[in-house]
Fold these 2 entries.
Entry 1:
Amino acid sequence: MGVTSRFGAGSGGDGMKTLIIALALCGAAVLALEAQATTDEVARDARWQELKEVIFEGRPVQDGSGLVVLEAPARALDAALVPVTIRMTDAAGVTGVYLVIDENPAPLAAHIAFGPGADPRAVSLRVRVNQYTRMHAVAETADGQLHETMVFVKAAGGCSAPVGADEAASLAEIGRMKLRLGSEFAPGAPVEAQLMIRHPNFSGMQMDQLTRMYTPMRFVQTVDIAYDGTPVLHVDGDISLSTDPVIGFAFTPKGPGEMTVVVRDSDGAVFEDSFPLPPSGS
């Protein structure tokens, strides 16, 4: 007795054709994704080449994987508060470091110059990321050489994210600072520290939730940190720094003294504070 398919005569051939078409479409989709990925990488390479020419004025930038390590989340939990740490595997001769976020409206997020009082082995920041992007750390050595490393970060919308309050509230405590030590204060040994600065760091891309108007740009432009008159860090910032910037660094004190901080913003305001070290009661 013959067996009749419930799909009707010839259904086996039609099913095979459907399978072949489906596989072909899947293959085409994979090829399209691969082609798009290749196109994206080419565009990212071109973007970095362009940024290098502008930021470093044609100076050669070499592979720095043996000197500098850039730590950032592959996928950020909050695009407006992305933690970044730059570590030097060999800090001898390192005079500064640049942090570049390729696809941000202001790609040069920060330039940090290490003073004679600094321990340049590590520095950390919180930044905004506007869209999926490559992020580069470029260390500069005393002989003028530039050493670069890169990570890719998946995040979007950080530059336009609201600061969490209306403009007046955001400005109420502007310029207030705190300093915390992350390791024991010991003369002659590196001491880890974290500086917190109250500042909305308006990017010009945020909308005031009350007025529905864009809040004018106003950001931390420079930060100077010194210990007993000896420079520790000079930071040039921009709108890519997060609201209420946080700077992690290390310094080597010769003994008890005072850390002074001077912050200047893009509106010309100057904020100053000082912190006796070691803190009282420690």
Entry 2:
Amino acid sequence: MFAFLSSAEAASASLRMRVVAIAPRGAADLEPALTAFAREPNGGLIVAPNPVNAANRELIIALAAGLHLPALYPFRLDSTKGGLVSYGFNTIEQQRGAATYVDRILRGTRPDELPVQLPNKYQLVINLRTAKALGLDVSLQLQQRAAEIIE
């Protein structure tokens, strides 16, 4: 979480934007935090990949829609569930890689002998239905860069 926040803060400075971190501990913290955040003008969410957000995916998507907050999510599933935009690695590809590691370990390879593998492919998914509901126009150029468009 802290690395994600540090990256967002560094990028925001050059864009003259301000990052406001919300660190909910559970579902009960989400509605008041997002409602307070939505009172500020010109805001948007970047939903970090973490267990609390994953466990409350549908609630976050519903709150963002209800509060008219554009939101960027970390996984394709978020966009298919109604999130505006997701940008992240292909989780299925990562899970397949993990299965390969399990197989190698079961065949005798020591875990410390296995290289660390980071994702090498990221996908942009745009939900045009959600964009329309938020009153947003998504440029054709951005749509052309997307791996998937949900209409």
